[in-house]
Write a structure and sequence with these properties.
Structural class: alpha/beta
Largest sheet: 11 strands, mixed
CATH superfamily of the largest domain: P-loop containing nucleotide triphosphate hydrolases
Number of domains: 4
Strand content: 15-25%
CATH topology of the largest domain: Rossmann fold
Distance between the termini: 92 Å
Organism: Lepagella muris
Keywords: ATP-binding, Nucleotide-binding
Helix content: 25-40%
Number of strands: 25
CATH architecture of the largest domain: 3-Layer(aba) Sandwich
Protein name: ATP-binding protein
Shape: elongated
Length: about 675
C-alpha cells in the first residue's frame, strides 16, 4: 500500500512539473490594461521570437490575427490579436540596455471562452490586470476551429491559411440547412469554392438512397461553368436550354405554373389598372372553357362563344373597331386551320363601308342587317373557316387564342380599347414563342426524374430570358415544395451562380414593377423557405448590387477577395459576425482564400480552399495567353529548328557563355 502511495505521489509531482514547464513555455505575458472587450497585454521580453519549441515541434508565436487564452481563476478566456505596438519604458539606470526600455504591447479583443472542454463564443468574463496570457496548444487551437460536434457528419473544405496543419471541416447539418453566400471578385476562386462545397457533399452522400429520394438541388448556371461532365458531380441532369430542340434539353413544366396572373403580368410588363385586369379576365375565360370534360365539348363551347361575338362584331357601327376585331378573328382562325385554308381570310368576301356615322358591311349578296344576319353569315368565308377550325394541341398556342378571343369580347362590350390592350397581347405572343424551346409543357413537371441534382445551363439564352427562367422555375419549385414539405421531410437547395444577374437592385433594363416582383419572389424564399426546407446558395462578384434584404438574411458567408469599397461596405453592414481585421484583409486575400463567417463559425477564420482535380473544376479559369499565342509543341520545334536548335539535343550553358551563343544564333 505504501509502495502504491509513493508511486502516486511521484506521478503527481511529475505532472505538476510538466504543467509548470508547459505554462512557462506557452506564457506570453500579462494583462496590462482593460478597456471593455479591448485588452492590452504586455509581452514578456523573452517571448518576442517568431516561434517557440514544445515537445520537439515548432509552434508559431503570437502575432496579429492569432489567438491566445487568458486565465482568470477557473475561466479560460479566448482573445484574438488585432494589433500590436511598442511603448517606451523609461528606466533611469545605467545597468539596462536601450532595448530593455521598449515594451511590446498586444491589443486583443475577447471573443469567447472555454467551458467543460468546449469553446463558446461571446463575452462571459473580462480579465483582470495581472492575469496571465498564454499561447494555445494544438488541442485548444483545433477546438476553436471545429465547426461540428464529434458525432456530426462533416465535409472538408481546406486548411487554415495561417496554419496549413489545421484542417477545416464543417458540419453538413449546420451548413446546408442554411442560406449560403459566396462572394468575391472575378478570379478570386468564388466559383471553385462553390464547386468544392457541393462536390464534397455529393461525394459523401452519393451512396445513400434517402439522399437521392429526399434531397433536391438545382443549379442556375449563367456561363456554362458547371455543365461539364464531372463538375459538381458526374451523376447529374443537365438542361442545355436553347442549344437545340431535343426534348432532353427542355425543362418539364406544368401549364398551370406558367398561366398565372402574377407570372403573365410580369412577362408582359402589364400595367396594374388596365392590362392586368384584362389578363385576369382572359384566364377566367380560358379556365371556364377548359373545365369541360372532353376535348369535343371544349371545341364546341369555344366555337359557340366566338360565333356569338362574330354576330355582334358584324353589326357594330364603328368601322375602325370592326376592322381591328376582324384582324384578331383572322389570327385566331388561321392558327387552327389545316394547310388547305391557310391562305384564307375572313375579309375575302366582305367589304366595310363607312358612310358618316353609319357603318355598312357588304358581300356579293348585299348588305348585312340584323334581320338577314343568319342567312348572310352562313354564306361567308368566315363561316367555313370557323367550321374547319380546331384548337391546337400546343397549350401555349391555345392560350394565345383565348387571349385574342378575350380582346374581341372586351372590344365588343366596350370594356377595353385596342390601343391599351393590344401591346400586352403582342408582348405575350412574342415571349410565348420562346417557351416551346425552353419548356416541355405537359402534365409532368418533375425535372429530377433522372437525378436529384439538376444543372440549368443558361449560357446561350438571351439576356431577358436569362433573368426570366430562374425566376419562373424557382417560384414553381418553391410553390410545389411547400405542398410536399407538409407531408414529407424533403429538402430543396436553389443554387444561383452570378446571382447579381437576377437579384440586382440597380437594373435599368426593366420596369420597377418587374424588378420589385423579381426581388420580392426571392426575398420570400429567403425569409420563409427555411420553414419548408427550401434554401438558397448565392454566388456573386458584386454583393453591393444584390438586394440588402437578401444579403442580410443569409446565414453563412464565404467571402473571397473584394476590392470595391461598396462591396466591402455591404459585407460590413450585412455580416454581423465579421470583425475589423477580417474586413481589412478582404482586398489582399490570395486566390482560393476566403473568410468563413456566419452562424456556423464561432469566429471568422481565413481558410485556403483545397483545389479540386482539374476535371472537377468549373470552367471558369482565366485563359493562358501564351498557350494560344506561342502554339503547340510541334510548332515550337519547327520554330526552334529554324534557329539551329535540334529538338532533343538542348543542353544547359553557363551564364558566361549565353551572350556569345545568342550572338551566334
Amino acid at each position: 500500500m505504501r509502495l502504491y502511495l509513493n508511486e502516486f505521489l511521484e506521478l503527481s509531482i511529475s505532472m505538476e512539473i510538466i504543467d509548470y514547464l508547459k505554462d512557462s513555455i506557452f506564457r506570453i505575458g500579462e494583462v496590462y490594461a482593460v478597456n471593455g472587450r479591448e485588452i492590452i497585454i504586455k509581452v514578456d521580453s523573452n517571448k518576442n521570437l517568431p516561434h517557440v519549441i514544445y515537445k520537439g515541434r515548432l509552434i508559431k508565436n503570437v502575432s496579429v490575427g492569432s489567438f491566445l487564452k487568458i486565465k482568470k481563476g477557473f475561466y479560460n478566456l479566448v482573445a484574438k490579436v488585432e494589433s500590436e505596438t511598442l511603448k517606451e519604458n523609461r528606466i533611469e539606470t545605467e545597468y539596462h540596455s536601450k532595448q530593455d526600455s521598449l515594451i511590446r504591447l498586444l491589443i486583443v479583443k475577447i471573443i469567447g471562452y472555454f467551458e467543460k472542454g468546449s469553446y463558446h463564443k461571446g463575452v462571459k468574463e473580462v480579465p483582470l490586470i495581472g492575469n496571465i496570457a498564454y499561447l494555445m496548444d494544438n488541442d485548444e487551437f483545433e477546438r476553436i476551429h471545429r465547426f461540428a460536434d464529434p458525432e456530426e457528419e462533416t465535409i472538408y473544405l481546406g486548411n487554415l491559411m495561417l496554419d496549413e496543419n489545421v484542417p477545416i471541416r464543417i458540419s453538413i447539418d449546420r451548413l446546408f440547412a442554411s442560406h449560403i453566400g459566396i462572394f468575391g471578385n472575378t478570379g478570386s476562386g468564388k466559383s471553385h469554392t462553390l464547386a468544392k462545397i457541393y462536390n464534397e457533399l455529393f461525394d459523401k452522400m452519393k451512396n445513400f438512397n434517402n439522399f437521392k429520394r429526399n434531397a433536391r438541388f438545382v443549379v442556375f448556371d449563367f456561363n456554362g461553368e458547371y455543365s461539364s461532365t464531372d463538375a459538381l458531380c458526374s451523376s447529374k441532369t443537365i438542361y442545355n436550354l436553347g442549344s437545340d430542340s431535343n426534348e432532353s434539353n427542355k425543362i418539364p413544366f406544368l401549364i398551370g405554373d406558367l398561366l398565372r396572373l402574377d407570372t403573365l403580368s410580369i412577362l408582359s410588363d402589364a400595367t396594374e389598372k388596365t392590362q392586368q385586369p384584362f389578363i385576369k379576365r382572359a384566364l377566367k375565360l380560358y379556365n371556364s372553357i377548359k373545365n369541360h370534360e372532353s376535348p369535343e365539348e371544349i371545341q364546341s363551347h369555344f366555337k359557340n362563344t366566338i360565333s356569338k361575338y362574330i354576330k355582334d362584331t358584324l353589326l357594330l357601327k364603328d368601322a375602325q373597331k370592326e376592322r381591328n376585331i376582324l384582324d384578331l378573328l383572322d389570327q385566331i382562325l388561321l392558327s387552327g386551320l389545316n394547310r388547305e385554308l391557310q391562305d384564307s381570310s375572313v375579309m375575302d368576301d366582305i367589304e366595310i363601308y363607312n358612310n358618316g356615322s353609319i357603318k355598312l358591311i357588304r358581300s356579293k349578296d348585299g348588305f348585312v342587317t340584323s334581320d338577314n344576319y343568319e342567312e348572310f353569315f352562313c354564306r361567308l368565308k368566315m363561316k367555313s373557316m370557323l367550321d374547319s377550325f380546331r384548337l391546337p394541341e400546343n397549350p401555349i398556342q391555345e392560350f394565345l387564342i383565348f387571349l385574342n378571343l378575350r380582346l374581341i369580347i372586351d372590344l365588343v362590350q366596350n370594356k377595353a380599347q385596342n390601343d391599351h390592350i393590344h401591346p400586352v397581347v403582342r408582348r405575350l405572343d412574342s415571349l410565348m414563342n420562346d417557351v416551346p424551346n425552353i419548356f416541355n409543357i405537359g402534365e409532368d413537371n418533375d425535372m429530377f426524374k433522372k437525378s436529384n441534382i439538376v444543372v440549368v445551363n443558361l449560357n446561350v439564352l438571351k439576356t431577358d430570358l436569362k433573368k426570366l427562367i430562374p425566376l419562373i422555375v424557382s417560384m414553381a419549385l418553391y410553390r410545389g415544395h411547400k405542398l410536399k414539405a407538409k407531408k414529407n421531410n424533403v429538402y430543396l437547395n436553389i443554387i444561383v451562380d452570378e446571382a447579381h444577374n437576377i437579384l440586382s437592385t440597380e437594373s435599368k433594363r426593366e420596369t420597377e414593377s418587374w424588378k420589385d416582383y423579381r426581388l420580392e419572389t426571392f426575398e420570400e424564399i429567403i425569409k420563409e423557405g427555411r420553414k419548408f426546407g427550401v434554401f438558397l446558395t448565392l454566388a456573386s462578384q458584386r454583393p453591393s448590387d444584390i438586394s440588402a434584404t437578401i444579403v442580410s438574411q443569409l446565414h453563412n458567408y464565404l467571402i473571397h477577395r473584394l476590392v470595391n469599397n461598396k462591396d466591402i461596405e455591404m459585407i460590413e453592414k450585412a455580416v454581423s459576425y465579421i470583425d475589423k481585421l477580417s474586413l481589412e484583409s478582404l482586398p489582399i486575400l490570395p486566390v482560393g482564400a476566403c473568410i468563413l463567417s456566419g452562424l456556423i463559425a464561432d469566429l471568422p477564420i481565413v481558410l485556403q480552399v483545397e483545389e479540386l482535380p482539374m476535371k472537377q473544376q468549373p470552367k471558369s479559369q482565366t485563359i493562358k495567353l501564351t498557350s494560344s499565342w506561342i502554339g503547340d509543341s510541334k510548332e515550337q520545334d519547327e520554330s526552334r529548328a529554324n534557329c539551329g536548335i535540334v529538338p532533343g539535343f538542348e543542353f544547359e550553358i553557363d551564364d558566361a557563355d549565353k551572350d556569345e551563343r545568342y550572338e551566334d544564333l
